[in-house]
Every structure is written in C-alpha cells, then in structure tokens.
Amino acid sequence: MNLRSFKSLFLVLAVIPLVTACQNKEKENFIKENTEFATAQTDKMLQSVGQPTGKNYPRTMKNNGELAVTGMYDWTPGFFPGSLWYLYELTGETKWKDEAEKWTTSLEPLKTFTGHHDLGFMMYCSYGNAERLSPKPEYKDILIESANSLSTRYSDKTKTIKSWNYRKNWNDTTEWYYPVIIDNMMNLEMLFYASKITGDKKYYDIAVNHSESTLKYHFREDFTTYHVVNYDTITGKVLDQATCQGYSDNSMWSRGQAWAIYGFTMVYRETKDQKFLDAAIKATNVYLKYLPEDLVPLWDFNVGQEGYTAVGKSYAVEFPGKDLRDASAAAIVCSALFELAEYANNQSYTDYAIKMLHSLASPAYRAPLGANANFLLMHSVGSIPHKSEIDKPLVYADYYFLEALVRYKNLNKKS
Ligand code: GLY
Questions:
Q1: C-alpha 101 to ligand 1 mean position (Å)
Q2: Is residue 380 in contact with ligand 1, taking CB distance under 6 Å?
Q3: DSSP class per residue in 255-275
Q4: Using one digit for the tens of pLDDT, what is the confidence trace for 3-37?
Q5: Separation of 119 CA from ligand 1 center, angstroms?
Q6: In a domain, 23, yes or no
Q7: Which domain holds residue 241?
Q8: Cβ-based burial of 109 (10 A; exposed 0-12, middle 13-18, buried ≥19)
Q9: Whose CA is nearest to atom 5 of ligand 1?
Q10: pTM for the full predicted model
Q11: Quick check: is 222 in a domain?
C-alpha cells in the first residue's frame, strides 16, 4: 500500500467515525437539553392549569400574558394530553404517563361528538398516543366510537367529510353549506386506525375518498392549496374555492400548506398509493421554495403581494404585519419532513427537518423558562382574518415540536 492509499484508508477508518461520533453527541445533547426544557416548562404549565375540569385545556396566551384555555368542544383539547404523551416518550418517566392518562381520559365524553370535523385532532392526538404508548382495551373502544362519530359527517355525494357547519365567506356574498378545509386531512389518521383495529374497511374507504377529493379540488396547478372548498350538497359539485384563515382566496396560507404536507404524507403511509406521496412531495417543494432563511414561514406566503387581496370583514384587510411568522406551521412541517424523507428517499428533507427543529429551538422561537404562559414556542398565529391569536404561543405548535423531537431522536434507530 502506498502512502496516499494509506492516508485515504486512515481517513475512512479513523476520521469519519470520529466525525459521526461528534455529530451523534451533538444530537444527543440537543435532544437532552430540549427535553429538559420542555419538562421544566410543562411542569410550570401543570401547576398553573391545575387538574383537568373539562373546561381548561391550554390553548394560548392572553394579551396580558396569562394562560388562555378552552373547553373540550373546541378543536384543540387533544394537543395538551398529546404533548404529555410525547414527554413520557422522551423521558420514560411514569410521572408524565400519569399526567397524560389523566388529561387524556378527561376527553372521553367527546367520543360521541359530531359538531365539527376536528375529532381526529381531539381524540387521536390524545387517545391515539395513549393507545400507542400505554394501551388499554377501553382506549380502542373509545377510538372506534370516535371514528364512528367522525364518519357521520361523511357524504357519499361529495365524497368528503364536512368540516364545518353552515357559514359565509368574508365578503358575506357566498354561503358555505358544505365547507371542507385542507386541515381535515389530519382527521383521517383515526379512521385508518379504526379500519385496522376492527377489520372493517368502511373507515379506510371514507379516508381514501376524502383524500382523493382533496387531491382533486384543494390543490392549484403549482401545488399550493386552497384552504376552503365548498361543495353542493345535492350534486356534490365544487361551488367555491376560498380562504377563511389565509390572506386571500388565492394565497398560500402557511398552516394550511403544512396540514397538506403532513396529511398527504400520513395518507401515503396508510395506503402506499403513489399519487398521495407525489402530492406530499409537490406540496413540500413549493413550501420550501419560498421559505425565509430561518425556515419559519410568514403566516401566509403571499401576504401583501401583488395579485393577492384580502377582502370583506377579514382583519387581514387592515392588518399591517407583513413580517409575522407562524411557528406552528414550521413545527407541523418539521415533524412531517422526518417521515416524508423516508418515503421519498430524500436526505434533503431530513436535513431541512433538522434545521427547522434547531431554528424552532433557538432563542428566536423557544420561550425562556417560565415565560410565554409556560408554552414552549413563541410566535405563532391562530387566525389573522379573525383577529385572533396573533403572534402568540399555540398548544399545537408545541405538540408538533415535541413530535418532531421524538422523530429526530428515533431517526437513526430505524435506519
Ligand atoms: N385547524 C385549524 C387551524 O389550523 O387553525
């Protein structure tokens, strides 16, 4: 062996493993530090919120800095129990399992709820994680009953699950009798679970039909998404494609695009149908293309741009904040990309996910201990058009941040 080949061999055998070991240590420290912060911050949240009463699910922060909670029939009560499950997964400590069980089981009355489409978020983030991490026979029954309740909102005419009940658009000019929103993709995971556990394909069929309709009618040619699609209840035809929480009907609302990315990645996992993977990839690529340097998007990618106009009673008409970010969208996409990278066999998605996670965990977005009403992440946006939760923490930003942390931790275990 000549000197040059010896040097190359030395590099491969000694230096590369050393670099890998350093990277692994860095990752380990990152996960440890974020887990320690998240448990300390959530301890404070538990002290401030007390025991679950059915009316005190952490949601955001009031303008005066106090914790704002919701009742269980809002769309977000499943996220706090879900975060507690992720803390149990990250630490293995019984304390977090006990808290997670307590907050999860407080949601049991929701199993018969049919008032809107969000039951998947409400029950699968809570009971779904409970069943995955610490199964009990009653959890299965509760999830199946919840899947039945969600299925009552499905119509064979539109081949979708109705998201909301009747409402009007921001101009008050159009009535939506059958509005379906892109967010609804996220509720399908519970239906896939119900088919697997019961052996009854009806839930799977509803989820696939809904995904196919969404693929047809929510995507524009460039694979940005419409937030709302309103269907004719009698013919099943599309009557309107619009926004409710984005800047304008034709804009890319960041969290809507995040739901599309995550939703279609999940549907591909459950179906292995290539067209759903293609949709997830194309939705991701257009999202990544227009991200700012720190990888946390503006609340809407097109806010204030030529060709995009907020209308009617939407607060976006007068809202001046063109630089406002939405950390919740970043957290959702970050978590989704860890999974999509594997299906798309695309290392750059993993690299993006890791960078997004570091950006969210930096002082620019992660709250100081004891601040931010004890939520983990700062700088999310609930809904500008509704003048609600503007530049605030949101419980679902924290949930997907913790999920992404779990996925990052498990990354090398799989590969
Ligand atoms: N699913 C409601 C939202 O994303 O704001």
A1: 25
A2: no
A3: HHHHHHHHHHHHHHHHH--HH
A4: 677 667 766 677 778 878 888 999 999 999 999 99
A5: 13
A6: no
A7: 33-371+385-409
A8: exposed
A9: 382
A10: 0.96
A11: yes
